[in-house]
Design goal:
Mean pLDDT: 92
Distance between the termini: 42 Å
Strand order of the largest sheet: 10-11-14-15-16-17-18-20
Structural class: alpha/beta
Shape: globular
Number of helices: 15
Largest sheet: 8 strands, parallel, barrel
Strand content: 15-25%
Radius of gyration: 27 Å
């Protein structure tokens, strides 16, 4: 991870969280509107009964343009996905993927066929007369049949994701409002980086991330595959190099085939010559002799063997042979060679063998040796028909070099909020601004700490500068200092930043606040067909609470329904705090098919009142209760989700039976109620 040795940092505004906020309005006013209505009737005329023009359906990311119609396209018992025979070779894989996911969502088979469209069918075509859609845009026309047209299969695929989101948000998963959407991304690369070098993630988890990214129209998955904790690629020529937890060639093939189905590109990174501890452990001859370059100040660097000694011909030959085997294992147009966190100039100048090599080669600075090595790697990558990608490093913190990386290398820039500097030098750039998009919960787990993303500021204020040569933006998820945590723990801190990136990088109209945006996201949920969605909090109210603090701090019970994770309910401080249990009851506003709830602990860094043992009950009338869930929560700040057998009810009651510190208080930032739909045709979700 870059940048932790800075002496100063800009102050950051404090307002975010990574919580599952409840749902707000499901419809958004977007850029294009429907034609004007006919003139209003006169005073003597009876008001005509007409259906309102459909507002834009809520999706994530939001639609660029929407022209509303009236009424709905509806699924029928004979609905099909249609692809013409002429386009079968081009669109069959996309159609089959859509059919499989749609069938899982609906609980019944939706076949792929060809022929003339009937009401209830979905038509896919990669031929369009719309010139403004580019390579990832699409047009969705909802009439008697649904038509998704785009210039490419990728655009068609994104149209299918929009349809699935609309259907999932529909209470019966059966309708799409009539109208026409035109939709396209603002940025070409919309990316997530995952640090699997420090922490191993199984293939099943990586596939789940790919599916989630496709759902949100993120298109690039950068895998940081090597670091001091492990070299994660198994090779035939160097079989003892890989960590016990690593990916075989078959694993990588499976992963890339899955990613191709979902139009996500996997960019592999083998970080060189720094972060090389497992490589130098495999062959100690690859190490620097000088301590200043052998060890490093970054986590893991204290062990030694951090940086490959690229002054040795043996090292350069080893790297060449290693990459010759690894580069062809990946389909991506790009191959990332790292290049970051090499010792600063004082460390370089203190290394006799490096200085001697610099002078022997006629370089002006020791840093030139590493820039030259990067350019050597670039030539090797390009010999495989790929483009090299590397981290910005040679020029940070005053490091000197008289030569520069080749201009055909794509640079991951992380230093500044504005990537213009490198773009203006002629580099193609992917922006990963450290202070905006680094998710590093091993360092920061609360507002205004390093590595904790201020999602409010990023969503509402950050401009995402995109001068010429900036390909896109990336959320970087680092595993430092938290390597033993579970994937779910890491996901809590990354979930909201990825949603924000998806919306902002696509570039459609935004919600008024980030909290309204998260409510929209929660109303849609994720791609899993069995995942419940959040019940809108706009129709809820707290009906009773046994204790709340409203004097020493504004910690009333109503805060659990305000969609603001920086407020919370806290039981009273005085005159003497009562021991648990403490309880809060809520009227959801109507009878719903309830299937679970989410408990979000306070997010201000405090742990006082964090709930351990709980009881959750439901009621039809607010008087007679039936308990549907009991259990204990882990003692951390992550959101806790509890599901139970689906039951119809209107009222809910949450009882905190004990606190994790055995104290008398209870606190809660948000209480989110989960629901499942009633599907047509008699099918019901589990």
């Amino acid at each position: 991870m870059k940048g932790l040795t800075r002496q100063t940092r800009r102050p950051r505004r404090t307002t975010l969280t990574l919580t599952a906020l409840a749902v707000g309005a499901l419809l958004l006013p977007l850029v294009a509107t429907s034609p004007s209505m006919a003139a209003a009737p006169g005073p003597q005329d009876p008001a005509p009964r007409t259906r309102a023009v459909n507002p834009a359906p809520a999706v994530l990311p939001s639609l660029q343009e929407w022209q509303g119609g009236r009424g709905h396209w509806r699924l029928t018992g004979s609905s099909r996905i249609l692809v013409s025979r002429a386009e079968a070779a081009e669109l069959t894989e996309t159609a089959r993927t859509f059919a499989a996911d749609l069938s899982a969502l609906l609980g019944r088979t939706i076949p792929v066929a060809s022929g003339s469209a009937r009401p209830g069918d979905v038509v896919l075509t990669a031929h369009t007369d719309d010139p403004g859609l580019d390579t990832e845009g699409y047009r969705l026309t909802s009439a008697a049949a649904l038509t998704i047209e785009a210039p490419t299969p990728t655009g068609v695929f994104y149209g299918t994701q929009t349809v699935q989101q609309i259907l999932k948000a529909d209470p019966r998963r059966a309708r799409v409002p009539k109208g026409t959407a035109r939709d396209w991304p603002r940025m070409g690369q919309r990316a997530q980086m995952l640090d699997v070098g420090r922490k191993f993630y199984p293939v099943s988890y990586l596939k789940s991330q790919i599916r989630l990214m496709a759902w949100q129209k993120l298109n690039t998955f950068h895998l940081h595959l090597t670091d001091w904790r492990g070299f994660r690629i198994r090779t035939e020529k160097f079989p003892e190099l890989a960590a016990k937890e690593s990916y075989s060639a078959a694993d990588l093939r499976e992963l890339q085939d899955y990613a191709r189905r979902y139009h996500v590109e996997i960019i592999p990174e083998v970080d060189l010559p720094g972060h090389a501890t497992p490589i130098t452990a495999y062959d100690p001859r690859l190490r620097f002799s000088c301590p200043s370059m052998d060890k490093a100040q970054w986590p893991g660097g204290e062990q030694g063997g951090w940086t490959l000694d690229i002054t040795k011909e043996h090292t350069r030959r080893f790297v060449h042979d290693l990459l010759e085997e690894i580069i062809p294992m990946f389909d991506s147009r790009y191959f990332h060679v790292g290049g970051d966190e090499i010792g600063y100039d004082n460390a370089k100048n203190a290394c006799p063998e490096l200085v001697a090599y610099q002078k022997e080669r006629g370089f002006e600075h020791p840093g030139d040796v590493f820039v030259d090595f990067l350019n050597t790697l670039n030539r090797q990558v390009r010999s495989h028909g790929k483009t090299t990608e590397a981290w910005e490093w040679w020029n940070v913190y005053g490091q000197k070099s008289s030569i520069a990386p080749d201009k055909n290398i794509v640079i991951d820039t992380w230093v500044s909020d504005d990537p213009s500097a490198l773009a203006d030098q002629g580099y193609r750039v992917v922006a990963t601004p450290e202070q905006r998009l680094y998710v590093s919960p091993g360092f920061g787990r609360k507002p205004d700490t390093y590595g904790y993303v201020d999602v409010r500021a990023v969503y509402e204020d950050y401009t995402f500068p995109t001068p010429d040569n900036v390909s896109g933006y990336k959320v970087a998820r680092w595993s430092d200092k938290a390597e033993e945590q579970s994937p779910e723990w890491f996901d809590f801190f990354a979930r909201r930043p990825l949603q924000v990136l998806a919306e902002r990088a696509w570039g459609g109209p935004r919600s008024a606040t980030v909290w309204e945006f998260f409510a929209r996201a929660d109303a849609i949920g994720g791609p899993s067909p069995d995942e419940p969605t959040a019940l809108p909090k706009s129709g809820m109210r707290v009906t009773s609470v046994d204790s709340e603090e409203t004097v020493a701090e504004k910690a009333a019970a109503a805060n659990v329904l305000d969609d603001d994770p920086y407020t919370h309910w806290h039981t009273a401080y005085s005159p003497a705090p009562a021991a648990p249990p403490h309880e809060i009851t809520v009227d959801t506003g109507g009878h719903h098919r309830l299937s679970g709830f989410r408990y979000l602990p306070r997010q201000d860094g405090g742990a006082n009142g964090r709930v351990r043992d709980y009881e959750f009950s439901v009621s039809d009338n607010g008087r007679t209760w039936r308990t549907v869930a009991t259990g204990s929560f882990a003692d951390d700040q992550t959101e806790k989700e509890v599901t139970f057998k689906t039951t119809a009810a209107r009222h809910i009651r949450f009882r905190a039976l004990s606190a994790t510190n055995d104290g008398p208080f209870t606190s809660m930032a948000e209480l989110t109620v989960l629901q499942v739909p009633a599907l047509p045709g008699g099918h019901r979700t589990p």
